[in-house]
Amino acid sequence: MAIGDVKSQQGLDELNKYLAEKSYVSGYTPSQADVQVFEEVGKAPAASLPHALRWYNQIASYTPAERKSWEQGVSPLSAGAKPTAAAPAAKDDDDDIDLFGSGDEEEDAEAAKIREERLQAYANKKSKKPALIAKSSILLDVKPWDDETDMSEMEKLVRTIEMDGLLWGASKLVPVGYGINKLQIMCVIEDDKVSVDLLTEKIQEFEDFVQSVDIAAFNKI
Prior knowledge:
By secondary structure, the chain is of the alpha+beta class. It has helices at 9-18, 32-41, 50-60, 64-68, 103-127, 151-159, 196-204, and strands at 135-144, 166-177, 180-190, 210-220.
């Protein structure tokens, strides 16, 4: 996916979409491609662009020296969707001579160590985020057999049903005609723990009181 001018709103929108499932713009570790896009963006994206903002803050957490040490990468910018230019090779005949001994190797090792520590810290932080629990709000219509059914007792029986992930809420009686009322009762369930079919079956087991159970409203929370 090529990204347009990230100084424009459209380009930032494209960048946010591009980074929705990516930690970096090229590969699995930060590279010069991140530096190029980071410098083009210039400032932290708006909070309405969460993926781009997360990526920008991550790249900004590194020092300029650390960013300079990153390897090349493929930029997604449409104006330059190719590997960022490598530093020009020295024309000196003594290219193979290491004038600084092992100093550069030590600096590269230290930069790599810092990068790994930052990546590990970021991974640990993400792993500690609490998982989102999917819940639903349900409005049930519990219908009696006739107008002689003890509706108060019916409600008490319904509320005796206990399941992990089930929470009963408010209730009321609603006229349906011929002096008969139905019980409307709210409940909230955790989707992974409570089966709606099983819940309605349990209510219908009070067969001396309950004729049928219908779902009047079902909403994801």
